[in-house]
Amino acid sequence: MLYALKDCANLRIDSATTSKTVLYVNYAKTSSLEFTSDSVFAMNKNVKAVRFDSNREGQFTTTMEVFPMEVIPLLFGTNFSSATVPFAKREILKVTSGSATLVGTPKVGTLQVYKVKEDDKITHIAEQTVGTTTSENKYSIAGQTLTFNTTTTFATDGYVVCYYFVDTAAKKFVVDNISFPGGYVIYGDTNLRGTDQGDDFVQFKLHNVKPQSNASLTMDVDNIATLQIVWDVMGDSEGNMMTWSAIE
Fold first, then answer.
1. Contact present, 74 and 38 (Cβ < 8 Å)
2. How many Cα atoms occupy the beta-carbon half-sphere of 111 within 13 Å?
């Protein structure tokens, strides 16, 4: 029977070290397998007569437009951990009658305040520093309330932008120059449809794979980001690279 394939495999990814499943992927957009090998030829005069093959290599490529965040640290040989992090904040505040109120609570020593143009609320006019509010470009702070100079700095209402850090509970991972991905075993499930219009279930096993430690997340207002993972397919202790099983 002849078959057609129009599907992206669902993937179970197991750690080669612990044999525990670390990820199940049923949301990938594409999954492709590619195997290559080197060839040299013995020549009969100027005609190829005998071919010798060696150095088989494999790559398994997956692309995703939706994905859990846990996929990303996997590429760098690390995991998410719970932590308290200094989270960068930016607030635009309306200064009315010389005062404005912060929404967040800045981490001590991190608050930066700038008077900005009213038309864009981006362009800095002058930095405001803590001091006596009778002086130009000075402010005082009590709790969440900022009080500004009302003679020369804010003789009329205006806007300030505040940059600061807030200690926030988060999950984080760190990319360093010594951690790289570990080894994995991948099981892929898909269906082949025969000319009888019936589906046959197929599973492939990649015995020894390791993701390339490359990642590109393009943040684009016009296009959806695509995460691509390229897995190098290597041989296991017995030299096996892939097992393809068609379930009867």
1. no
2. 21
Beta strands in the chain (DSSP E): 3-4, 10-15, 21-25, 30-44, 47-64, 81-95, 99-101, 112-116, 124-130, 138-142, 145-148, 158-172, 184-194, 199-211, 227-234, 242-246
> How confident is the model over 217-244, as pLDDT tens digits?
888 999 999 999 999 999 999 999 999 9
Beta 138-142 vs 124-130: how paired, if at all? parallel
Asked if residue 99 lies in contact with residue 148, where contact means CB atoms within 8 angstroms, the answer is yes
Q: State the chain's maximal CA–CA distance in angstroms.
A: 97
- Angle (nearest 5°) at CA 171 between 167 and 172: 90
Strands 158-172 and 112-116: antiparallel
SS (H, E, C) 161-210: EEEEEEEEEEEECCCCCCCCCCCEEEEEEEEEEECCCCEEEEEEEEEEEE
77-to-16, 191, 201, 231 alpha-carbon distances in Å: 13, 32, 33, 14
pLDDT digits (tens, 9 = 90+) for 67-116: 999 999 999 999 899 999 999 999 999 999 999 999 988 999 999 999 99
- Of the candidates 153, 143, 148, 155, the residue with the CA atom closest to the CA atom of residue 133: 148
Calculate ∠ Cα 119-123-125, nearest 5°: 100
- The span from the CA of 204 to the CA of 242, in Å, is 7
**Residue 248: pLDDT over 80:** no
Closest CA to 236 of 185, 162, 176: 185
On whether the CB atoms of residues 121 and 95 are closer than 8 A, the answer is no
